[in-house]
């Protein structure tokens, strides 16, 4: 499909490396922030580490650990790169093939292809709005029935992949951070019930098109949660007392810090722009309260991270015990994990 629609490669490369959005409004901004959360999912930050822990590596041999780290890095890069390429193809095909198309135009194309879903698109001159559900139908009308089923299988596979990563991450968090040693059945039942129940309510009491809006909202929510995953990861991987010879160097500490700062700025810009577009005083007040709570927690994590990384002048009062907790010493006989 990417080859068929023949997108402008120059514009594609410019869009990849130069962040801009011409004539964009709040919906487009929401999608842009959602892409950040969808590609860099916060729970995957923990999942990758937990899966690495399950590999058979002689952690007493530093050379073997260093070699394993190299291949873990390559493995993660390949997975993220493939995901990145798929996202580029999907966004490019939809943008090039369906941008500025009207409902009447798509209605005619679907009618000519004898699609049973032609009635989804009213025969008027309003701009076409494509979501996850209508997207598959439009692909089927433009590229043949096979594209419709390929899209459906792809969406199903993506949903299953997301479900599995969420379940695995929930298990590792409950075992590690919360120290709850439940049976697998109980863990899966709890985590899946929390995740699936809202979706079931939407699917039962609303139509299928509302699932797309909820998906966009969840992606934005994951982007907002990224600092809660990235800051602790940067903290612990930068501590020599925990990582020994494998602690982050100055470059990775600075790069990681700047990345976290960039994500926080993007999130807050989106929140401000989104709330301002609602034109409601009550929502302004609610968003302001939530923003203060959110920023306070991010600032607290950042403060502990800086203290753990050596900025001892920031420590005061009871933070001595906190920094001692962050600087947990491992016995020499136990290699870094």
Give the overall average pLDDT: 78
> Could you tell me how far the N terminus lies from the C terminus, measured between alpha carbons in angstroms?
44 Å
Total number of strands: 0
Helical residue percent band: over 70%
Shape: globular
Any idea what the radius of gyration is? 23 Å
How would you portray this structure in words?
The chain is mainly α and 337 residues long. It has a domain at 208-313. Helix content is 74%, strand content 0%.
Brief write-up:
The chain has 337 residues and is an all-alpha fold. The protein has 14 helices and no strands.
Summarize the SSE layout with pairings:
Layout: H1 2-5, H2 9-17, H3 26-39, H4 42-53, H5 62-98, H6 103-112, H7 132-143, H8 145-176, H9 184-205, H10 209-237, H11 240-243, H12 250-276, H13 281-308, H14 319-326
Helix pairs in contact: 3-10, 3-12, 4-8, 4-10, 6-7, 7-8, 8-9, 10-12, 10-13, 12-13
Task: Fill in the keyword field for this structure.
337 residues, disordered C terminus
